[in-house]
Amino acid sequence: MESRESILKVVSLINMKGGVAKTTLAINLADCLATRHGSRVLVIDVDPQFNATQCLITPEAYMEHLRQEKDTVVKIFDRKRIVPSAVKASKTALPRDLDEVEVVKIKRNLDLLPGSLELYRLEMAPGDGRENRLKNYIKTLEGKYDYIVIDTPPTPSIWMTSALIASGYYLIPVKADPISLTVTATVKMTP
Fold first, then answer.
1. Which residues form a coiled coil (predicted)?
2. Which of 3, 49, 110, 139 could in theory staple to 34 by disulfide, Cβ–Cβ 3.0 to 4.6 A?
């Protein structure tokens, strides 16, 4: 019999077209696994639009989360970070170990690592191996979760690449139209 630590499954929802229900499927898949199957699930929102985050927590709770400088997915990718503030002087946040990144408990068996608009800023920063950080973070979670569901942006980006590298499984939601099918063929060819 496999131990709980060896059965972690990482599923990314990807498509380079918006409006195909990636986020909707990610949230519903995670909720179904947690609620109906009793699996321990973490949703990681690597889409800079952070729609999965907005589906799972209220805007007020998210703003409070940010105000308290709690973790978002940015902590995985941005090792040296300047924290701007309109109220007090900007400061540099000290890098932390990946296993210290804290998630938000949504309900029994369902957690979230919130997304952040700040990912847009990071997209323009120099690389330094950023595409492997999500995979490295997920390695620290073995034994804590049964499934990790990653919601990705609808564009080719470092965030989509990191999700592809970190995942063992992929779901590619499509609509039955020529553009969606063409984009799906392109995703299949992505190395």
1. none
2. 110
pLDDT for residue 1:
39
- Using H for helix, E for strand and C for coil, what is the string for the chain? CCCHHHCCEEEEECCCCCCCCHHHHHHHHHHHHHHCCCCCEEEEECCCCCHHHHHHCCHHHHHHHHHCCCCCCHHHHCCCEEECCCCCCCEEECCCCHHHCCCEEEECCEEEECCCCCHHHHHCCCCCCHHHHHHHHHHCCECCECEEEEECCCCCCHHHHHHHHHCCEEECCCCCCHHHHHHHHHHHHCC
* Sequence ranges of the domains in the chain: 4-189
The pLDDT assigned to 128 comes to 72
Residues 31-40 have a mean pLDDT of 97
Q: Which CATH superfamily is domain 4-189 in?
A: P-loop containing nucleotide triphosphate hydrolases (3.40.50.300)
CA distances from 26 to 98, 111, 121, 127, 162 (A): 23, 13, 24, 27, 17
Weakest-pLDDT range from 77-81, 82-86, 100-104, 113-117: 82-86
